[in-house]
Design goal:
The chain is mainly beta and 192 residues long. The chain is built from one helix and 13 strands. The strands form four sheets. A four-stranded antiparallel beta sheet has the order 1-2-3-4, with no helix packed on it. Strands 5-6-7-8 form a four-stranded antiparallel beta sheet, with no helix packed on it. Strand 5 and strand 6 form a beta hairpin. The radius of gyration is 17 Å and the shape is globular. It starts with a strand and ends in a 17-residue tail after the last strand.
Length: 192
C-alpha cells in the first residue's frame, strides 16, 4: 500500500514537527529533544471527525499550518471531506473550529463551478484564514493514459462518496472563523 506524505510544519517553540499523511488522514507529532535527537514519543491522530465523515481515515489530511490568533494551535485541511480544522495539540487535539469549505463558486459571468476541497490553509496575522480550493488536475504533468484513467476513476469515486461532482474550477476562500456560517451560500460567511 502506498503512503503519501504531504506537509511538514515545524513549531519552533516546542521543537516539534507535524507531518500529514494523506493516504490515511493521519497527523504525526514528532518532537525533538533539546539535543536535536528524535524524542522517544511520536503521537498520531486520524484527522476527520466521524460527525462529518463516517470514515475519517478517508478525510485525506493535506495541509498543516500554524495559527497567529491561537499560538501553538494548528490549521489542518482535509481534501476528502472538504473541511478545515483548528486544533490544539497541547490539549488532547481538541477541535476549536471545524468548517466545511465552499464547494461551489459563481464566476463573474454568473456561471456556477464545482471547486475542489481545501488544498492549503493559511492564517493571516489578523486571524483571518485563506484557503486554496483546488479543482481537478486531470491532464496536468507528464502522465500516461493508464495513470490518467486511474486519477479520473479515483476522483469520481471520491467525489461520488461525498455526493459531489468532480470539480471543474478552483477558488480562494477568505474567512474570519468568527464570521463562519455554514448555511450562507456560496461563501459561508467569507469571500470567494
Amino acid at each position: 500500500r502506498r503512503v503519501l506524505f504531504r506537509s511538514i510544519y515545524w513549531d519552533e517553540v516546542t521543537s516539534t514537527g507535524f507531518v500529514s499523511i494523506v493516504t490515511s488522514s493521519r497527523l504525526l507529532q514528532v518532537p525533538l529533544a533539546p539535543n536535536a535527537v528524535l524524542a522517544p514519543t511520536v503521537r498520531q491522530w486520524v484527522v476527520g471527525h466521524p460527525e462529518h465523515n463516517a470514515h475519517p481515515e478517508l478525510g485525506a489530511l493535506h495541509n498543516v499550518a500554524g495559527s497567529y490568533r491561537h499560538p501553538g494551535m494548528l490549521w489542518l485541511s482535509t481534501e476528502g471531506d472538504d473541511r478545515i480544522y483548528l486544533v490544539d495539540p497541547a490539549n488532547g487535539f481538541q477541535i476549536m473550529y471545524a468548517m466545511h469549505v465552499p464547494t461551489n463558486h459563481v464566476d463573474s459571468a454568473g456561471k456556477m463551478h464545482a471547486v475542489g476541497g481545501p488544498h492549503s490553509v493559511r492564517e493571516a496575522p489578523d486571524g483571518t484564514v485563506w484557503v486554496c480550493l483546488k479543482g481537478a488536475s486531470l491532464g496536468e504533468g507528464p502522465q500516461d493514459a493508464a495513470h490518467e484513467e486511474y486519477n479520473k476513476a479515483m476522483m469520481e469515486s471520491r467525489f461520488a462518496a461525498n455526493h459531489e461532482p468532480v470539480p471543474d474550477g478552483f477558488a480562494v476562500w477568505h474567512v474570519d472563523p468568527e464570521d463562519y456560517d455554514g448555511t450562507a451560500f456560496p461563501a459561508k460567511g467569507g469571500q470567494m
